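Worked example (supplementary).
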Amino acid sequence: MHITPDAIIYARWGIVNMNATIVFTWLIMALVVIISWSVTRSLTISPQMRQLQNLLEILVDGLLEQIREATRQEPEQFMPLLGTLFLFILVSNLLSVVPGFKPPTGSLSSTSALALIVFFAVPYYGIRKYGLRKYLKGYLQPTPFMLPFNILGEVTRTFALAVRLFGNIMSGSMMGAILLILAPLFLPVIMQLLGLLIGVVQAYIFAVLAAVFIASGLQAHEQPKET
Amino acid sequence: MDTLGLVAIGSVIGAGICMGLGAIGPAIGEGMALSRGLSSIAQQPDETNTIVKFMFVGMAMVESTAIYSFVLAMILLFANPFWNYFLDKAGG
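After joint prediction of all chains, the assembly is encoded as:
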């Protein structure tokens, strides 16, 4: 039994392995890109729009609203990053009910990559708004004595973000596999349904937490200006 | 009893204790969060959306400790480094 899809290797060139995580990541990206591209070719403002266009409009509208509520700022600047994260994780988690599909979010390597993106996005937005000097000053905020703890907080929350997503999705597929051995008839179906719910909630939580981190990175450095 | 058996016993018991104790704390914490959230919804039904959202985010934070212990238990059971080391030694 494999804990992560990293262990399933399809092809190998020298030190480069093509494992299941990479393959399914590219599959998901291709799926999302192709669907969005095919929908945006024939956009219409008449009420008789295609169902897929309606779905995408609802998604984008809802995401904008959620980001606005979480960050209390103009959501358009965060939309490319947070929307992409949410959509990728959502599609990956939802497709985990397809037999033979190994969700790439169930491997620690890809969730670490996603968390690292958030880790670097926080100073990016902060520096873009306040400039390097003012942003770095924020780390000395209550007193310079707090500098190591501020840095440690950034690192540990990135770690928590990665392990949370990995653990949830991995536990879902793991439970499914174990229950399939123990009670193959009925119980795995319920676990799959629960897995769908958990997948959606985890995608939502990942995006909202990223939004909250970015917003806190912006707001923590805003306070000295006001006082 | 040989060392291999002792490692196996230790791993399985350790995984069980890890999962059991690791589930108690987050369960209590999530229950408290849920009860506070529900009572604040009962007091201010207009703010339901905001309360539910922050409750979910906080619960995800609390839940991550349970996830840590689950990952640890899974490692102990299925990807045990000590176990692999002894297997290599016995097999090699």
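Two points are worth noting when inspecting this output. The mean pLDDT of chain A is 85. The radius of gyration of chain A is 20 Å.
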